[in-house]
Each structure stands twice: as C-alpha cells, then as structure tokens.
C-alpha cells in the first residue's frame, strides 16, 4: 500500500483543523531529554514570538502553548526589572531553551535548567540565564495535553513507523531467502567457501522469530527500562517519513480540491461546470423571473409594441441621438397612443 494512502487511513484528522504550529510540530522528532535525573521525550517549536512545547515520560504527556501576549506577561512576572517588548528578549530565550530542551546543553553552559513535578497535573521547567549582565528567569508551565494531541503527535506516528519497520523486516526476510537460493546454486555448480568462518546456516523465518522472542527480546528489555530508546536513527526515520507523507497528502488534497471546484451543483442540484464561459441567448433576458414578466413577454408578441421595445432595449447613447426623427412617424406614434389609451382609460 502506498505511504500516502496509509497516512490518510491512520491520520484522518491530523492536518484538518490544525494551525501552523501543529503542522510544524508534527514534523519535529521526539528528542530524549534528561532533566533533574528524569528521562523524558521532548518536542519544541519556537516561532517569531510564540512557542509550543511537548513533554512525555511515557506515562503522561504535557504541553504548553504561549502567544506573544502571554510571554510578555510571564516575563514581567518573573523578571521585575525587565521592561522590554517580547522581540527584544525572545531570541535570547530561544538560544537558551532550545539546547536545553533538545538534550544538547553543554556542561559549561551558564544556563541552568530544573524540572519540578506537581503531581500529575502540572510540570514546571525552570531556566536561569543571564541577559545583558542581569539574571533572566523563565518557566515552562506544562499541563496535561488533550487526547487528540497525544494521538496525533505521539501514538499515530509511532504506529505508522511500526508498520513501516514491519514492512522493512518482511522485505529483508525475503531477501535472505533469495540469497540462500543464490548460494545454493553456487554450491551445486562447484563453488566452494574459502573461509569457513563465513559459513552461515540457511535462513528459516519461524526459527529466527522464535529465537528473537526467547533470546534477544529479554536482553533488550532487561537493561533499558529507563531508556526511552528514541535514538538518532529513529529520529531521522521519524522526520523523513512525516515530511514525505505530509507532502504527498498536501498534493493529493490540492488536486481533489481543484477537481471539486470545477464542478459545482446549481440550485437544482445539478453539477455545472464553473470553468465554462456563460454565453447568454438572445431571449434569455425575457425568460428571467422578476416583476412585470407577464407584461414584458406580452409586448414581445405584440406587433404594435415591437418598435418601441427595440428602441428601449438599445444602449442609452443611442436613445439621445434620434433628434432628427420625424415626430409624425406613424410606426412610433401609434404604439404610444394605443398604450396610453389602454393604461389610462
């Protein structure tokens, strides 16, 4: 199955109704983080003067989204002597916070980061640094994230990657079977192995899976219970997959949107091609609904009013020109007299 189709099946609401931070945050990998001796995974997004942060210990997911106004208010609350617009100190906050929240903080860095948990309801991450020679304090107040955020940012991407890795394992198993058949063909045609230590047993899928579950799996689970296991290779796979599938999904949605705009239903429920040019027929104006439709339709069939109708339908510049017309012209005078007599008698 194509990656884009799998994504639309498993991710039906990820991109719909989401703001720009949600889309950009989705493409950020989960980075392992150790704060105050606690293992976490973190996702961060910093804009021009706003940010979003996600933290999880695989037992709960916390988040904080801050706008420019909220950042200004908290900065003044934590730094009483700071009286500056957000853009004046937000770049410093990004320079300090991003290395700390990505696990790349240097030991010799002047910034300090601590984590405080207030039960399950709230997690506070405190940063202390220097700005223009004065202490600069900041706190991230993270609260439990909604279920939709947990599913879209953590569960669904991991399930998708699990499916992708399973496809990779199946392809590798098929490749090993073909390699064994190739080696067997070499042997049947007289080829010999010059180095006995390179000899391998034929691959058997069921035997390999049984050995993995009974031998390899216990070794992996016993020594890495505290390690969340989101290493560099998995981070790269996560970013590559999400970026690729998002691009394919956007292209498909744009093509579907353009196709739906070409055919739009009219008032009667019938599809009308909006791209086609509308060419009015000569009698179209007389058949449209409106006041006085009956009188106008009658005048079209009345030979006495034909001349008057033709004159009234002409543009205004043609109505002011006929000054040289003969007032005693019978075709024009008769309809006016008959019409006047019929209206006022």
Helix count from the secondary structure assignment:
12
Structural class of the secondary elements? alpha+beta
Give the radius of gyration. 38 Å
What ranges have pLDDT less than 50 throughout 5 or more consecutive residues?
1-7, 9-19, 275-301, 303-316, 318-325, 337-345
The description of the largest β-sheet is: 7 strands, antiparallel
Count of DSSP strands:
9
How much helicity do the residues have? 40-55%
Please trace the helix and strand order, writing H or E for each element: HHEEEEHHEEEHHHEEHHHHH
- What topology, given as strand order, has the largest sheet? 1-2-3-4-7-6-5
N→C terminal distance: 83 Å
Strand content: 15-25%
What is the mean pLDDT? 74
Molecular shape = elongated
Give the secondary structure arrangement, pairings included.
Elements: H1 3-10, H2 20-26, E1 31-35, E2 38-46, E3 51-56, E4 61-66, H3 68-78, H4 86-101, E5 112-118, E6 122-131, E7 134-144, H5 147-188, H6 205-223, H7 232-262, E8 263-265, E9 271-273, H8 284-287, H9 293-301, H10 306-312, H11 316-319, H12 330-344
Helix pairs in contact: 1-7
Describe this protein's structure.
With 345 residues, the protein is an alpha+beta fold. 50% of the residues lie in helices and 17% in strands. It has 12 helices and 9 strands. It has helices spanning 3-10, 20-26, 68-78, 86-101, 147-188, 205-223, 232-262, 284-287, 293-301, 306-312, 316-319, 330-344; strands at residues 31-35, 38-46, 51-56, 61-66, 112-118, 122-131, 134-144, 263-265, 271-273. A 7-stranded antiparallel beta sheet has the order 1-2-3-4-7-6-5, sandwiched between helices. A hairpin with a 2-residue loop joins β1 and β2. α1 crosses α7 (232-262). The longest helix is centred in the middle third of the chain and has 42 residues, at 147-188. Residues 1-7, 9-19, 275-301, 303-316, 318-325 and 337-345 have low confidence and may be disordered.
């Amino acid at each position: 199955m194509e990656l884009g189709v799998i994504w639309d099946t498993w991710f039906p609401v990820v991109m719909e109704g989401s703001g720009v931070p949600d889309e950009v945050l989705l493409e950020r990998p989960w980075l392992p983080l150790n704060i105050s001796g606690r293992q976490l995974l973190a996702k961060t997004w910093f804009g021009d003067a706003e940010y979003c942060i996600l933290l999880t210990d695989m037992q709960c997911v916390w988040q904080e989204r801050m706008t420019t106004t909220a950042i200004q208010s908290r900065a003044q609350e934590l730094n009483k002597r700071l009286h500056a617009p957000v853009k004046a100190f937000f770049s410093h906050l990004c320079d300090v916070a991003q290395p700390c929240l990505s696990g790349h903080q240097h030991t010799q860095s002047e910034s300090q980061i601590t984590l405080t948990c207030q039960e399950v309801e709230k997690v506070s991450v405190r940063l202390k640094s220097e700005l223009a020679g004065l202490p600069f304090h900041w706190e991230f107040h993270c609260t439990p994230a909604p279920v939709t955020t947990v599913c879209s940012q953590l569960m669904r991407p991991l399930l998708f990657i699990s499916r992708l890795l399973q496809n990779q394992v199946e392809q590798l198993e098929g490749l090993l079977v073909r390699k064994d058949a190739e080696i067997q063909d070499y042997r049947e045609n007289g080829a010999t192995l010059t180095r006995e230590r390179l000899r391998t047993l034929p691959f058997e899928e069921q035997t390999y899976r049984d050995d993995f579950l009974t031998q390899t799996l216990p070794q992996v689970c016993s020594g890495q219970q505290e390690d969340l296991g989101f290493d560099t290779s998995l981070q790269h796979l996560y970013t590559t997959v999400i970026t690729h599938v998002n691009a394919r999904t956007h292209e498909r949605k744009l093509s579907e949107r353009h196709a739906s705009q070409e055919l739009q239903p009219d008032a009667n429920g019938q599809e009308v091609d909006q791209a086609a040019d509308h060419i009015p027929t000569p009698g179209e104006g007389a058949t449209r609904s409106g006041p006085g439709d009956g009188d106008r339709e009658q005048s079209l069939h009345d030979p006495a009013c034909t001349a008057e109708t033709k004159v009234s339908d002409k543009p205004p510049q043609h109505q002011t020109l006929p000054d040289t017309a003969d007032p005693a012209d019978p075709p024009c005078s008769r309809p006016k007299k008959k019409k006047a007599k019929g209206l006022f008698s």
